């Protein structure tokens, strides 16, 4: 899924970027190899055994990754942990870093597992492709083996899912117009929800600053 | 590329190792790492507080741990001669007599690393230690066939023996053995200055200080011999008892919870307005069948069969900075423990209480803490108090955790 903006849509693109919505990827990996750029086309660094790896061990590692990333999510969101606001947002699960932050994974789970291959679904924020390949490599290290990434495919970008994507056979004016029409409403509500929420936070910050001054 | 050598880091039969992690206040020696207290030639610098989990090397696999007020006990279920190790404060011989190496006639006041505690067992190579528990200045050790051993301060009879006037407790060799109960003791719990014993038949015995009614025997005097409790728990099969300060909770096999002791912080305010309750009273909460209960200094927490956590009392209860005190249990939303649509089968499996903080273990092996961060006892790496459950990053699956006043010990299985 790759989002393109046409004409006035470019402005919407920056707004969508500021919403900091999560992207979903399916990442394929291969146990037994470690390469220098973490993908299976790079230069081989090491080969290891992997027959001790089970799906249960993999899921345990994934649970820990999720836990530490959840902590990073709360820490980078720049909200004071001691306030009631922070508590309510944490309960609803709405705390998200609204500015620049290192890549954070909000959810990760294993879709397929047939030794030596496995496939993960990763929901993340502010990521790069190299970061996703590095995650595969680190999972291999944690399981006392090694892993290289074979496939990275974005299946969701904010509000746009695979179903909205146009395959190459449909790259003509009519289908593009239909697609824009379908997505317009969703994009608008998402921007209002998040930027509106951000305005509320800014208002609260301004009030607190005033209270501190007086 | 095909000819590259293949390395093996772990074979098919590689087993998960058991580890112990400690964190909190270091200067009492309760963490068991001497380099945190006294400088030595290694790389570790002395520090007042260890804010994140630190691995403690132990000789045997530790099955039970307990944190007291400035000291720690670790026990293993081995049949070797040495079954219990202690570290930290020893001014009341709560860790037994630790012979000083410089002067063979004197004992150590502070024990800086896990040191064996010699128990006067009749069959030292057959008896196993099941559980340990620590209070303010006394400790209880539960064995499977030789009853309960008590040591430490006995000025209120909390060790289960007669109070001797002007007894000096420091550098004492005395370890008392308790055997007379209606059936085998299966759980021992230390409150601040009292002791509770739960037997196989479901009865609860108590001894020690009673000025807040924490012995539950119907009076406010001290008791120096373990005596059976009646009140609302007479005839009830109790499956778990808990205490750490001056309030006590007991859970029956039918999911009811009973409380007695101090109620100055609204712990028992749901049944009475008095601030001390000296007879066990049933707490009529309509929150479902209760599986486990834990008592802190000013707040209590229970875990229901469905895996929900309810808190009440006074202090930082875990529901944000606005909920400071409540007499009726309030649920902590499961989303704070990692539950979400993406992970719908995360449940809290165990709950523990320190003096002013709480800990919860999920079924995925994650540890969540909240409460007052006294001298870094939460282990979050930050010095601020935590008003809602926060994950502690431990490299492994947390199996059990023991909470003290200003430090914590956790037993972890490596990945």
UniProtKB/TrEMBL annotation, chain A:
InterPro entries for this protein: PsdUridine_synth_cat_dom_sf, PsdUridine_synth_N, Trub2
Domain Pseudouridine synthase II N-terminal: 3-128
Gene Ontology biological-process entries: pseudouridine synthesis; RNA processing
SUPFAM superfamilies for this protein: Pseudouridine synthase
GO MF annotation list: pseudouridine synthase activity; RNA binding
Source organism, top-level taxon: Eukaryota
TM spans (from-to): none
Pfam families xrefs: TruB_N
Family note: Belongs to the pseudouridine synthase TruB family.
Protein name per its UniProtKB record: tRNA pseudouridine synthase 2
Source species: Pterocles gutturalis (yellow-throated sandgrouse)
From TrEMBL, chain B:
Any GO BP: positive regulation of mitochondrial translation
Pfam family, one: RCC1
Residue stretches of each RCC repeat: 18-78, 82-145, 146-201, 202-254, 255-306, 307-364, 365-414
Chief localisation class: mitochondrion
GO cellular component, one term: mitochondrial inner membrane
Any GO MF annotation of the entry: rRNA binding
Compartment(s) of residence: Mitochondrion inner membrane
RCC1-like domain boundaries: 16-297
Keyword Membrane attributed: yes
InterPro entries: Mitochondrial_GEF_domain, RCC1-like_dom, RCC1/BLIP-II, Reg_chr_condens
The entry's keywords: Membrane, Mitochondrion, Mitochondrion inner membrane, Repeat, Transit peptide
Origin: domain of life: Eukaryota
Protein's job: Guanine nucleotide exchange factor (GEF) for mitochondrial dynamin-related GTPase OPA1. Activates OPA1, by exchanging bound GDP for free GTP, and drives OPA1 and MFN1-dependent mitochondrial fusion. Plays an essential role in mitochondrial ribosome biogenesis. As a component of a functional protein-RNA module, consisting of RCC1L, NGRN, RPUSD3, RPUSD4, TRUB2, FASTKD2 and 16S mitochondrial ribosomal RNA (16S mt-rRNA), controls 16S mt-rRNA abundance and is required for intra-mitochondrial translation of core subunits of the oxidative phosphorylation system.
Subunit structure: Forms a regulatory protein-RNA complex, consisting of RCC1L, NGRN, RPUSD3, RPUSD4, TRUB2, FASTKD2 and 16S mt-rRNA. Interacts with 16S mt-rRNA; this interaction is direct. Interacts with OPA1; this interaction is direct.
Protein name from the UniProt record: RCC1-like G exchanging factor-like protein
